[in-house]
Amino acid sequence: MDIELIKSELEPYISQAQEYIRQIEQHVRQIPPLQIYVAIGVLLLTIFFLLIVRALKRTVSNTIVLTGLSGGGKTVLFYQLRDGSSHQGTVTSMEPNEGLFVLNSETSKKGKIKAVHLVDVPGHSRLRPKLDEYLPRAAGIVFVVDAVEFLPKCPEASEYLYDILTKASVVKKKIPLLILCNKVDKVTAHTKEFIRRQLEKEIDKLRTSRTALSDADISNEFTLGVPGEAFSFSQCINKVTVADASALTGEIQPLEQFIRERVKP
C-alpha cells in the first residue's frame, strides 16, 4: 500500500523528467552536425589541455643538489637544513646523503609547505660520477666552496665547477647554480667577491686549454663564455650566483632563499 502511495507521489516528477528529456532530444536533433563536432572537439581539447597542465605540475622538480670538493661543509649544510644541527661540524660522507623534508626553518610555519628533495653528493674525485645521476632532475645546484682553504683548492674547485657548467644536462635545462662560500664565520675566510674573481680567472684559463683540445675530446661539452672576452659567470646560459654562509653557526639564509626560489612552498 505504501509502495503504491510512493509511486503515485513520484509519478508527476517522473513525467516531468521524461518531458525534459524529450525536449533535449528535439533540441539536439535541430543542431547542425558540424556544430556538434566542433563542440566535441573543443571539449576534447580542453580535457587534453587540463591533462597536460596536471602532468607538468607533477614533473616540476623539487630536487636540490649539494656538491663541491671534500671538506667544504656540504654534509653539515645538509643537516642544518634538515634538522638545524651541525653534527659537531665534522661530517665525512662517502655515500650521498638524501632526504625529502620541509626545511628546518619552516617547520613552525602554518599551512602546507612543499618538501624539498635534498641530495648531498660526496666531493671525493672517485665519487663525483654519482652527480650525473641527480643532475638531470635537479631544480637547482649548490656548489659549496671552503672560504678558508679556498686558495690551495681553487684550481681543483674551478675544474670541477667548469665540468658542471658545461654538462649538457645542466646547460639545456638552464639549471640555476649557487656558489656558496661556506665557513665565513672564520676570521681567515675569503670574501665571496674574492672567491668569485679567482674562480672566474681559473675557469678562463681552463676554457682556453679545453678549447685547444680536439673536437673528439670535447664533443659532450658546451663552451663557456664569449670568445675574445675574459670569462665571467654572467656569461653562463644558466644563472650563477655567489653567496656567503656558515654551516657551523647556522647562518644559511642565502641557501634557504635559493632553495625556495627553485622549489616553491
UniProtKB/TrEMBL annotation:
BP-aspect Gene Ontology terms: Golgi to plasma membrane protein transport; intracellular protein transport; protein localization to Golgi apparatus
Bilayer-crossing regions: 34-53
UniProt keyword terms in alphabetical order: Endoplasmic reticulum, ER-Golgi transport, GTP-binding, Lipoprotein, Membrane, Myristate, Nucleotide-binding, Protein transport, Receptor, Transmembrane, Transmembrane helix, Transport
Phylogenetic lineage: Eukaryota, Viridiplantae, Streptophyta, Embryophyta, Tracheophyta
Membrane topology classification: Single-pass membrane protein
Keyword Mitochondrion: no
PROSITE patterns from the UniProt entry: ARF (PS51417)
Name the UniProt record assigns to this protein: Signal recognition particle receptor subunit beta
Domain of life per record: Eukaryota
Recorded family membership: Belongs to the small GTPase superfamily. Arf family.
Gene Ontology molecular function: GTP binding; GTPase activity
Any one cellular-component term (Gene Ontology): Golgi apparatus
Subcellular location: Endoplasmic reticulum membrane
Xref: InterPro entries: P-loop_NTPase, Small_GTPase_ARF, SRP_receptor_beta_su
